[in-house]
Specification:
There is one protein chain. The protein has 138 residues and is of the alpha/beta class. 48% of the residues lie in helices and 12% in strands. The protein has one domain: Rossmann fold (3-Layer(aba) Sandwich), CATH 3.40.50. It contains 7 helices and 5 strands. It has a 5-stranded parallel sheet, with helices on both faces. Strand 4, helix 6 and strand 5 form a beta-alpha-beta unit. Helix 1 packs across helix 2 and helix 2 crosses helix 7. The longest helix is centred in the middle third of the chain and has 14 residues. The protein is globular.
Length: 138
C-alpha cells in the first residue's frame, strides 16, 4: 500500500499523539510505502523549524531531526511532473493530491479531511482518510 502522510500526522507523531505516532510507526515498520516529494518535504522542514509548536514536545530538536531522517529513509521519492490542481479549499494542500497521483498512492493520511478530501477534481482510486481509519486498514 502506497500512502502520503500529511505534515499534520508527522507533527502529531513528534508531539506524541497516539494514532499519528502509530501511523508513522506503521511506515517505519514497512506496513506501507510512504511517498515523499519536493513540496511535501519543504512543508515538513518548514513545520519542523517552527520551534514554538514543540514547546511541550516529548522529543528534543535532535530527536525530532533523527525521526525525520529515519522516516525519510523509508519514503519513496516521487517526482511530480504534472500539476493537476484539484482546487482544494486550501490551495496549499493541492500538492498532496498531486504527489499521491504521481506516485500511485492508495491513501492520503491526514487530520485535514475537510479540505483535502473535497477538491473539484476527483481521483476515484485515491482515498483521504484519518490516521484512525488508516490503522484499521493495515
Amino acid at each position: 500500500m502506497r500512502v502520503v502522510i500529511d505534515t499534520n500526522i508527522f507533527l502529531g507523531a513528534c508531539l506524541g499523539s497516539g494514532t499519528a505516532n502509530k501511523a508513522v510507526a506503521a511506515c517505519l515498520h514497512g506496513k506501507c510505502i510512504p511517498l515523499m516529494g519536493a513540496a511535501l518535504l519543504t512543508e515538513y522542514e518548514d513545520v519542523m523549524g517552527r520551534h514554538a509548536l514543540f514547546k511541550k514536545c516529548r522529543l528534543n530538536v535532535i530527536e525530532r531531526d533523527e525521526l525525520l531522517d529515519i522516516f525519510l529513509s523509508v519514503c519513496e521519492w516521487t517526482r511530480v511532473y504534472y500539476t493537476w490542481r484539484p482546487n482544494l479549499p486550501d490551495e496549499a494542500d493541492n500538492h498532496l493530491i498531486e504527489l499521491a497521483v504521481a506516485g500511485g498512492a492508495d491513501l492520503i493520511v491526514t487530520r485535514n479531511l475537510r479540505d483535502v478530501g473535497h477538491g473539484e477534481l476527483q481521483f476515484p482510486h485515491l482515498r483521504v482518510i484519518s490516521p484512525e481509519a488508516f490503522l484499521k486498514e493495515i
